[in-house]
Amino acid sequence: MSGLRERQKADRHRRIIEAAAELFREVGYEGAKIEAIAAQAEVSIGTIYNYYQNKGDILGAIVSLEVNEVLNAGRGVVASPPANVGDALDTLIGIYIEHSLNYLSKEMWRQAMAISTQLPDSPFGLAYTGLDRALTEQIRALIARLQEIGLVRPDIDGPAVGELIFNNMNMMFIEFVKHDEARIPELRAAIRRQNRILVAAIGGVTPGASRRTCP
Questions:
Q1: For residue 180, what is the DSSP state?
Q2: Where in the sequence is the domain holding 10, given as residue range(s)?
Q3: Sorting pLDDT into bands at 50, 70 and 90, what band is 2?
Q4: pLDDT at 10
Q5: Are 42 and 90 members of one domain?
Q6: Are 36 and 85 part of one and the same domain?
Q7: Are 17 and 93 found together in one domain?
Q8: How many domains does the chain have?
Q9: How many CB atoms lie within 10 A of CB 158?
């Protein structure tokens, strides 16, 4: 019976999140009412409040779904990265960026960022910060892996490089969601162009190659 209850609970969660994401896109975050979300999810209003304190918590659940999916996809890149630093970073960051509008519109991202900034110590704000930290840690893990296989210099501060890459990507993503006309290919090209400078600075020796020594 407990297994059935858990499946039913998971199904209600899924329906609520899917209904909310659809309504947030159709009428905007402010325009979507809890009553409408409940009706579309085919649950009672009370059921929604059993799981979420407010509409912001539902938005937070959608953000968590988004980020956790890209983290799961990114683990394969970290475990077996392309044999080129630029390609490895582009592949991992590409997963983040290409997936970013699967569940959330730009307006939803703006709302989520605003809540996390205005209420940093709230459950939503703490969860949002935790998701950013998880993405940073995954990029740091990729740099560490690239150091292990000799594609990134062993003498650099790998964790700091990972933080730098995330912070730059995050700032560019914030600018991206500010402008409805901005497109994902443009964002990826801009990130790729800036990362080339960093890649040139941190690149190690390709396995099997030898270092050129000064005469």
A1: T
A2: 1-52
A3: low
A4: 84
A5: no
A6: no
A7: no
A8: 2
A9: 22
User: Hey, what long-range contacts does 195-202 have (CB within 8 A, 24 or more apart)?
Assistant: 195/86, 195/89, 195/90, 195/93, 195/165, 195/168, 196/86, 198/161, 198/164, 198/165, 199/85, 199/86, 199/89, 202/85, 202/143, 202/152, 202/153, 202/156, 202/161
Contact assessment for residue 128 and residue 116, using Cβ atoms and an 8 Å cutoff: yes
pTM for this entry: 0.89
CA distance 2 to 53: 25
Q: Distance between CA atoms of 154 and 177, rounded to whole angstroms?
A: 36
Residues 134 and 48 in one domain: no
Same domain? For 7 and 66 the reply is no
In a domain, 208, yes or no: no
CB 142 within 8 A of CB 88: yes
Instruction: Convert the pLDDT of each residue in 4-62 to its tens digit.
Output: 778 888 889 999 999 999 999 999 999 999 999 999 999 999 999 999 999 999 999 99
The per-residue pLDDT of the chain, averaged, comes to 92
Residues 110 and 164 occupy one common structural domain: yes
